[in-house]
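Notebook, p. 212. Picked up where the previous page left off. The plan for this session was modest: take the two constructs that came back from the sequencing core last week, fold each one, and keep the raw output in the notebook itself so nobody has to go hunting through shared drives later. Recording the first one now, exactly as returned: residue sequence, then the structure token string.
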Amino acid sequence: MEKGPLTLAIESSCDDTAAAVLHGLEVKSNVRHSQLDHHAFGGVVPEIASRKHGQLISAVVNQALIDAQVDKADLTAIAVTQGPGLLGSLLVGHSFAKSMALALNLPLINVHHMKAHVLAHFLVEDGVQSRSSISFPFLCLTVSGGHSQIVRVDDWNAFTILGETLDDAVGEAFDKAAKLLSLPYPGGPEIDTLAQQGKARFKFATVKIPGLDMSFSGLKTSFIQVMQRHQQLHPNTLIDDLPDWCASIQKALISPLIQRTTMAMKQEGLRDIAIAGGVAANSHLRSSLTDVAKHSGWSLHLPPLSYTSDNAAMVGAAAHFALQNDQIDHVSSSAKARIPIDA
């Protein structure tokens, strides 16, 4: 067995039950079970999510250990998402992690879910990425179903929010727009796929917010109004022109992110820019930021698609930095539904 910290990481903040084993920042295994039970409801049902976590977590953790060819006795630390997220879901993973830490007499590291998404950029994989190319400080656009923030990252634990959504997160806005188009949940990937076959020819109202903050709830109202207006002329437009509607909606939701991120980069005078979170998988966001970064001479860091969705490897990345700085938590600590990223 190699020397150095060998961490078991656990993630259960929403509807993905995940576990990973890391040697330092190198991913040895990364197991994730996505719950499909919520698709019929058009969104995550908290009670179902927490119950499924309870049913799955032991098997997922065991599989992560098997994939990494690691025995429990080899572990040197247990890391777990403390929050933010659905409290019931968090409690399952957090309680399991605390039990393992107590049973094995190992240090426990609590991890902030969104910080973990950001710090996933430092992960390395054998045969995939030998070392990370990102370094502090950098700007990160964190975008998911629950968060939309522009964050300055000066160190592993030094995050400053420069701008954020004042209402809906962009991922939530994607899901709401998909529902208007009668697309299945989760809506973001559905819109992205169809948008690649269409043209952004429908125009929506521009939401004007000063500074670096954003708003997406007003766009949903505009989507409804424009759809209704076109349906009066073409009753089947949402079916016949579906790819064009998806391309138009995607452009309307991504454009404010690109604009605000560009403003923030110029304001902060940084050269490195990253994106993180579930919406970081969006093809239009990735291609648009690639163009902006190339034009501006910035270094853009795009996470592998496997690290955009909730996963446990990112929890291990955050734990690695905490261990390096002797930041250990007590097993009496609790899961928390809300934790500011700049706390």
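Okay, moving on. Second construct, recorded in the same format:
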Amino acid sequence: MAEETVVIETEAAPAAETQAPAPAPSYGGGFRGRDDRGPREVDGVEKVVHINRCAKVVKGGRRFSFSALVVSGDAAGKVGWGFGKANEVSDAIKKATEASRKNRFSVNLKDSTIPHEVTGAHGGGFIMLKPATPGTGIIAGGGARAVLEAAGVKDVIGKSLGSSNHANVVKATLAALGALRPADEILRARGKEIKERKAL
């Protein structure tokens, strides 16, 4: 008796519709953030101010190393800077970021700006900061802008009057922010009552 082969046709279940992931945001030229390295936990704001390449000439050729200057803060009154060296850019940035988190200190702010005009200096760097009305934005560039954004200042007028060296500008800006004092403390230092503040 011949065997009969039975073929059963079945319809494949419809594949579940999958939604394509949203494309990653694109940034214009000059952006030096870390968004292209995958998701990670970021504690506040991190800004890479400058990366320097150093070449050491040896018998077999040149050996390159990198140094990175990073500013980080919580955008709510705390900011710090860090410097890192390594043979790879990513390692240098990592070292600098860790150092900047350890060096954070608190800054006295008034709403979205600074409480009073202040100057800061370090080495050949000299910077002047003035409070500004809401909506002005950060009128400063380079390392000074990175420090102010990381500290949480949104409205300020800054002018760099000294060296353009990135490290000196960053340290001068941090010195200026560290010299800020609230109005109550200034009045007490002058021996005046706090209730006289409105008359000043």
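Notes on construct two before I forget. Helices lie at 89-102, 142-151, 166-178, 183-189.
Flagging for discussion at group meeting.
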